[in-house]
Amino acid sequence: MDPNATLANIRKLIAEAKNEEAAERLLEYLNQDPEPVSSWRDTVSNLLAQYKRVKLQQQRNTISFDEARRAVNQITDGLLASLASIEEGLPAPSLKTTESGTNTSSPPWMVIGVVAALVLATASFFMLRGVFQNNNNTAPTPIVVDQGESEEGKCPPYEADSEFNIMVLPFQPLDGKLTPIERSLRIRLATEMEKYGLKGSVFTKKIDVFSDEYPLTSSQASIIGLPCKAQLIIWGTTEEDRNGNDIVTTKFRFIENSHFSLTDFEINNEATVDTISSLSSIATSAELTEEIEMTIQLILGLVAHETDNHEVAASTLEKVIEERGGVAANPKWGLIQADSYIKTGQEERAIEVYREMLKTDTTNVQALLQKGLLEYRTGHNDVAHDDLTRALEQDPENTKALTARAAVSVKRNDLNQARHDLDLLDKTADKSIATQVIRKKYDERHLEEQAKIATANTQIQQNPKDTSALRIKAQAAQNLGDFSTARKTASNLLEIDPNNLAAIKTLQSVMAKVPDSNAVRRQLEIAIPRLNPEELKQVRALIPPRN
Question: Which end of the chain has fewer CB atoms < 10 Å from its terminal CB, N or C?
């Protein structure tokens, strides 16, 4: 598609209120073009990130409808303004510092949004050109993370526009030898936050480490940080071992209860997998004895997650978790890492994180549910069914898992299992639209399979050796849960065609569900050795061992 057509298509997406798709398409276009067009990448990336943040805030109910609408309107205006300037070959706007001379800056989407509002009101983009050209010589202001020490007895001077406030307390020396760990930790953390573009404040609050005020527990630390509007408090202890080596124990607590609300997948009203709500807090505190550098990287990843910088969170947590023994050894951090992968569209990587967690924690219902729904969404229906079944083995009355397995079973044409789960849901208080939609799809599939059997019976009456009709009837009967008919029909098919793979697979599937399972086994023991090597790969593992 030529550039003009591509940009026209993007404009159409914006007009249809598909901002996220429009921004992603525009980024794809910019990644293929040389300067000056490519200079708009950061601007469009910021617009896309802001749009995703607004969506997340709506999901968490932390933003009002009017606030969300205003933000989306500004982002829309920003996309339109960016698109118009790209078409004219204009450079991206630079950001000015504030009048006070501080190193803060307005987000690029806000600058563009305000300008675009004027532009669109007059239906002219010439004003936009003038504003951008005037700012072209101004270098972008980097993000600066405020850091320092508070005055004695006072709260840290957190800036009003700080996205995340961190309070660091002096570390308590268990051996009486004061070691200023907090200063180096604070500076390193602020430096790393600046490096990754995480806007925040990191301050040390002066406190007598030998007083009764010094926290011994996570709850006590929270009481100190809460009045100062800190969102994370870090403290700890130091001591020297017999060999003269420093032992540092770092403790931290995220103060607000809303922290680490993770993406929660469910079956929505269209009976597809969607983000419906957020999981409650799962990880608010920790006590670490690792080196300070690893602790800083872990905290950095968690702060990145909480400020919706999920690419930073995912990559940082990946490195830290690997150094700490992998996801299996750090399941609570793994859940946050997986969440960041989900929020950056890396669903296969999220699945891999859940898979690693479940190697050592096979009964983790949360991981099983999330993985099962992601597998379903990515088309891996058989794996999804297994995950959801394992979740239900741990929590048989979990309506989310029952709904999801019913949807997966309809998709797999396992109508017997779907009916079983839907009947269980009918006995609960679950009267969701999703369940009704799944029931409707089940009914449609049920009629289709019955029609297949009726047609196959007509053909078999005309020709009892019609292998195609026998195969269809056997599979349809199995799908409906009529295992006796499926077993009898597949056996007849195998007598006519001793190498029929479909008949063998049907018999293997129903063998444990029919009274004459030993007779079925004997028939399979004769038939399976006749298959070629490729066919054997599909059936040998399906045969259960003798009792």
Answer: C
